[in-house]
Design brief:
mainly alpha; 0% strand
């Protein structure tokens, strides 16, 4: 649910935010990130929502594997990536000196949820610190899932560009 709350903020604001603000800060984007940022600036709300759906399906599978199979590596890894994602939003806001879509729910929902999740899993001895460390590479499986979601959305929901 925390993931959905966070991504709803991004879905609602992303397209409009880029349309209103991108021209003001595009010159600040470091050249290695310019191509991907230019592509992100053209993503429609519908495309972003479809990409989020693909990501959500992956997160549901990771959660089911953890809750039903008692195998937490994928679940832990995905949650580590979500926690790191909080700092990406904070960093973007600081670097651009403006609100970026997702920063509020990242700080007020993802961050407390993530900290509490890891605290409880460790205190209840469901997982250990070594499990958390070992799970980090599993979290990076989320990257191709996100890229695939955006690719699929771009193919299925083409813009007039």
């Amino acid at each position: 649910m925390v993931f959905l709350i966070h991504d709803f903020e991004e879905i609602i604001y992303m397209e409009t935010w880029f349309a209103r603000h991108y021209h003001k800060f595009r010159h600040k984007i470091p050249s290695p990130f310019l191509k991907i940022t230019d592509q992100a600036s053209k993503v429609t709300t519908q495309q972003f929502a479809l990409a989020v759906l693909v990501e959500l399906l992956f997160l549901v599978i990771a959660t089911l594997i953890a809750s039903e199979g008692m195998d937490y590596l994928l679940f832990l890894g995905v949650n580590i990536i979500m926690l790191l994602h909080v700092f990406m939003h904070i960093g973007q806001s600081i670097y651009l000196r403006r609100f970026v879509p997702g920063v509020l729910t990242a700080i007020f929902f993802i961050l407390p949820y993530s900290l509490y999740l890891f605290y409880r899993l460790l205190v209840e001895k469901v997982v250990s610190w070594s499990d958390i460390v070992i799970s980090i590479p599993f979290g990076f499986l989320l990257v191709p899932i996100v890229l695939f979601g955006h690719y699929l959305a771009g193919k299925l929901l083409k813009t007039n560009d």
